[in-house]
């Protein structure tokens, strides 16, 4: 490291430029990764935030909640396997609402849940809704951007039903739409005419059963309930319309960024190594071994890579605070550690060409070229 640090101190301009390039590359990778995670979270936040680890759906529903219709007999059977408190019904419908009599339309997803169950989200503003209240809902705070406030009327375009907003919840979205949580009473009115699978208007159909279960109980659910799909939370998230396609495109972009960054860094360090061939030859001629020179090259790459990562993280932190709420951006600690570690590893891999060049440098030839 002594030689590496001395050289970097001597050629400050050269290594500052290299570090700037590495900084821009790592900033771009982290920014696109944050956007990809933000979009993924905005698409499936409500499902990811649920305490359930399995969902029971109708067979052949392709793991999609909105395609599934479950009966109350199946809910009772599921509760007999995992316990009454560990299985709760979830009803979902996507619709368009307006604020009272105004014509401004907003797409939302309706979640009908048991307000006393663990599916009920925490209210961050206003008050919650009980199972006995009628005409009141709690909504994701993104609806504030559309002008909704506590007490605002929320009118369903299809049925003409109107609910009043009692409170706001945070990070509750489904398929990029804010979620509106209502109790069974209001869902019954919405689905008053629905009679499916023998369910009456008093017992409106269920889309899915959210359960807390271990793997053995999940297998037992599949066996006991027969024609159903028992899927994990990860599968449920991936089945949200557009989720896989959106994430696939962004992950492909991130993968190419990693490959391009490794290639660019490899070329930079290789060119610098070629420029220093005669110096390496002289060092070898006075007794410096190849291992020491290789460690010096790796040390320079490591210092530049870690330094650029730290600065880019600082810039990303500042940028994330300045981004508007409407632009989804999310970088958790595990993602940051994984991305930065991968960038450092690829930088070191990219410097292997330089190390090979150093190992093959012949002292006499290098000295001869320098003398010429």
From TrEMBL:
<keyword id="KW-1133">Transmembrane helix</keyword>
<keyword id="KW-0813">Transport</keyword>
<comment type="similarity">
    <text>Belongs to the ABC-4 integral membrane protein family. HrtB subfamily.</text>
</comment>
<feature type="domain" description="ABC3 transporter permease C-terminal">
    <location>
        <begin position="252"/>
        <end position="362"/>
    </location>
</feature>
<keyword id="KW-0472">Membrane</keyword>
<dbReference type="GO" id="GO:0005886">
    <property type="term" value="C:plasma membrane"/>
</dbReference>
<feature type="transmembrane region" description="Helical">
    <location>
        <begin position="250"/>
        <end position="272"/>
    </location>
</feature>
<keyword id="KW-0812">Transmembrane</keyword>
<comment type="subunit">
    <text>The complex is composed of two ATP-binding proteins (HrtA), two transmembrane proteins (HrtB) and a solute-binding protein.</text>
</comment>
<dbReference type="InterPro" id="IPR003838">
    <property type="entry name" value="ABC3_permease_C"/>
</dbReference>
<feature type="transmembrane region" description="Helical">
    <location>
        <begin position="292"/>
        <end position="316"/>
    </location>
</feature>
<comment type="function">
    <text>Part of the ABC transporter complex hrt involved in hemin import. Responsible for the translocation of the substrate across the membrane.</text>
</comment>
<feature type="transmembrane region" description="Helical">
    <location>
        <begin position="336"/>
        <end position="356"/>
    </location>
</feature>
<dbReference type="InterPro" id="IPR051125">
    <property type="entry name" value="ABC-4/HrtB_transporter"/>
</dbReference>
<protein>
    <recommendedName>
        <fullName>Putative hemin transport system permease protein HrtB</fullName>
    </recommendedName>
</protein>
<dbReference type="Pfam" id="PF02687">
    <property type="entry name" value="FtsX"/>
</dbReference>
<keyword id="KW-1003">Cell membrane</keyword>
